[in-house]
Amino acid sequence: MDFQELKENINKELETVKNSRQLRDFANAYLGKKGKIRELFSELKDLPIDEKKTLGEEINNFSENIRMQVKELEENLKKQERQFAENREKINLALPGEKIETGHIHPLTIVRREIENIFELMGFSVVDGPEVEDEWHNFDSLNIPEGHPARDALSLGKTLYLETGEVLRTQTSSSQTRYMKKIKPPIRIIIPGKVYRYENTDASHEINFYQIEGLLVDKNVSVANLKAVLETFLKEFFKKDVEIRLRPSYFPFTEPSFEIDMSCAVCAGKGCPACKRGGWVELLGAGIVHPNVIQNGGLDPKKWKGFAFGMSLDRLTMMKYKIDDIRWFHGGDMKFLKQF
Amino acid sequence: MTVSYNWLKTFFDKPLPEPKKLAHLLTMHCFENESLVKKGNDWIFGIDVLPDRAGDGFSYTGIARECAAVLNRKIVLPLIKIKEDKKLKTASLISVEIKNKTGCLRYASRVLTDVKLAPSPKWLQERLLASGLFPINNVVDATNYIMLETGQPLHAFDYDKIGENKKIIVRNAKPNEKITTINGREYKLDPAMLVISGEDKALAIAGIKGGQAAEISGKTKTIVLEAANFNAKLISQTARKLNLMTDASARFSHNIDPNLVDTAINRVVSLLQEIAGAKAAAGLVDIYPKKSLPRKIKLEIKEVGRIIGIDIPAGELVSIFGRLGIKILAKTKEALTLQIPAYRQDITIPENLIEEAGRIYGYEKISHELPIGYLAPVARNIDLFWQNYARDIFKSVDYLETYNYSFVSDLEKDIFSADLRRIENPVNSDFKYLRNSLLPLLLKNLKENLKSFKKVKLLETGKIFLPEKSKTKEERSLAGVFFDGSIDAEQTFLRLRGEMIYMLEKCGIKEFGYGKSRGKAWHKDNALMIEIKNSQIGCFGEINPDILASLKINERVFGFEINFDVLQKFCSEKEEFEPISFHPQATRDISGFISAGTSVEKITNAIKSAGGKLVKTADPFDVYAGKGVPEGKQSVSFHIIYQSSEKTLDGETIDALQKKVLTRLADEFGWEERK
């Protein structure tokens, strides 16, 4: 082919190149090892030496020129194409995120696990007891025999009976003597579980709620130990430096008995609506296990002493999440359950 | 107990601490003070007397004694000044007989003549009002006043109305005996109850409330005063049965010192002579068969320190007991022998004394001392572990854990035709039976939530209760309900089935099968029973449409209920890493006909067992019945992936394996290969 003609063709064709693929085809057709320009060189070999030299030089220059143009075009096309891709891949950052639906664990389970973990770290094993009890375990074993003033208050006023004469446990303490018989002392256990009360329900009363009973039986057990264990627990649970105080109280199954108050976690004891301005929040009942209970557990009360405490899981959960009504726990409302 | 600060002050010759300070001291050492309100120039305390102290603490004297012990003061008791009319003998005016001596421990009586019934003086009215009682007339007010002062309930009868022979009898009520009390209400009594009676007619329900028959009225001139002591349990049970709680029954329901009777009756006579100008007949008619004596208790001093956790010095102990009115009979280095005053009926064992010592000394002085113990890991509770594990598994497949009451009503009992354990005294009809399944209340939850949600997945785990002759068996159950709004019920079922398999595999259970579902809860066709080694674990599938209709749920709902106690026996934590092979995989697809209804999972298991370790996976990808499939058959296709962990499998080996698999399928399921 004539060089001039080729030159014109090449220039014309270069103008029609619109994308990288066309450019690659173009480059292969003209600039490659088997390209048209190379072919021109093979035609040169028959020409006289002078002509060969000038024309050769001309073709070389032209070839170099085209190569430059291709390179420049290549970069421009790439830029254009990247721009195009970027536009096409652009994400609308104004759109809202997708709503993620997952399962949820009930707040009573969450808090119960937390409490169990803390006590396990302090060497307390977690055990469970029956919810359907006999009268002996629910009352007599806890030093509430027939004729005791507390027996009627509890058995006639607060207890649910089954048609068989069995009772639904009114407190997890009913399992205390079972474990005294089962485990060789020293005993360090907590007994979390569902308890039942004959109760008209309101924001703070339920017929079903959960208690966590603690029991430690050893040769030397004192109020000082009880104080230390409960304060350590509360500090861990509330993740705050709380203080506790012991007040005299009465439970048939402990002697001495205490009501345990905690310095208000909201106001640090200064007084606020959460603690009714008193600076203290009533939290749990506790005491040194009554010798009759130790005896009922088959142990010698002269040798073995113990402390016990009982707290409401529902109440601790309500405090933790600032839940205002205990009835949410058994309401089955997904609007509630999805929050935890 | 409602306590007036001004009245309380009269028990002391020196000023008491400020009301706020006193309230705090009482809370920390004695009884919780629940409220403190200023009323005129007085302060009113709301003191929560502890139940075991109701016998002595429900009185000004009792509260004053507590203040005295805490403040280390002496109390001044009001004086008793009686002018008796020597010509008039009480014993000739009245006689008393106690028929039930276990019910009535003491009965004392006095007669006052020339009583001028009138309103009480202002100071007395004010004290009653401050203590929460309304003044009525001087006679009634005086008995109430002395009850508040001493803790001993008292009663006054009109002498002219107690009957001709002037005899008071303490007896059990007759069957169906009726009495109209002074507030005009009629009560039907039973023979377990005790009455104060004239010759034939009941004059009062003993220890609880007086009757109209001998009520004080404007015409009353002569009165009979009663101070008695009754069996605490009898009074508490009667008050409960009649639902009649009074100031008297609240006190008598706990043990009151019987020795208080004469002090109290003499105090009221003394007061009535002062405010109603009455004349007192001479002497006391007092039936007191068995005198209550002060208790003696020996206390080992080191036990106090052992239990409280700090050593209270012996001198301090002696001082504390002295302040509490406890007499030291003997004292050695090791022990104290103590005499307990009769009004402290609650102190019976050394531990009671340790509590007394501790609370007066001050619990705030006890240090914190963590118990010393063995460094051994705690025993793991395997039941709790698996139950928690199951909760987390279902959480990961989008279930919301919920808690329900353990009770169901007649509605659920009827709908599920359940054999349930009945509650003898249900709080209301919703809580009449113990649940024997978690499903009824979960379905109720689902129904409520459908009002606000398009998709409901709820999970519960807890105890269910099964009647067994005279006992009630507890079992742990795990159940869920599932509604996803999908129109393709089969898709929902397959999702649920997948969840069941996921749960079983997570629990380390590899081998399980299916049987026919059992129980009214399930759809007659669309539900299955999970079986592990001949044990029935529980059912899953579509809920019985009849049940849903009865519950007014207009959707197709799915669910499951697992007997967790049985499931847990098969659970295992043993999990091992399976080495990943780098040798190439060979995929073969098979398609064939088998009887309709043959479980696809069974075929999968058969392929795996025929091919052994070299079958990596066998996944069904098409299950089909209809056009081109013979009647009573279904077409099933599987991808089978063969792979060895040791070498590259050659074509010959794979063909041989494939043949083995197909032969097995043909033998076991009548598999016909589809061309």
Describe the structure.
The complex is a heterodimer of chains A (340) and B (675). Chain A is 42% helix and 19% strand. Chain A is built from twelve helices and nine strands. In chain A, a hairpin with a 2-residue loop joins strand 6 and strand 7. In chain A, helix 1 (3-16) packs parallel to helix 4 (49-89), helix 2 (20-31) runs antiparallel to helix 4 (49-89) and helix 5 crosses helix 11 (313-321). The longest helix of chain A has 41 residues, at 49-89. Chain B has 675 residues and is of the alpha+beta class. Chain B folds into five domains: 2-71, Phenylalanyl-tRNA Synthetase, Chain B, domain 1 (2-Layer Sandwich); 84-287, Phenylalanyl-trna Synthetase, Chain B, domain 3 (Phenylalanyl-tRNA Synthetase, Chain B, domain 3, 3-Layer(bba) Sandwich); 295-363, 2-Layer Sandwich (Phenylalanyl-tRNA Synthetase, Chain B, domain 1); 382-570, Bira Bifunctional Protein, Domain 2 (BirA Bifunctional Protein, domain 2), CATH 3.30.930.10; 586-673, 2-Layer Sandwich (Alpha-Beta Plaits), CATH 3.30.70. In chain B, helix 12 crosses helix 13 and helix 20 (600-611) crosses helix 21. Chain B starts with a strand and ends with a strand. The model of chain B has no long low-confidence stretch (mean pLDDT 93).
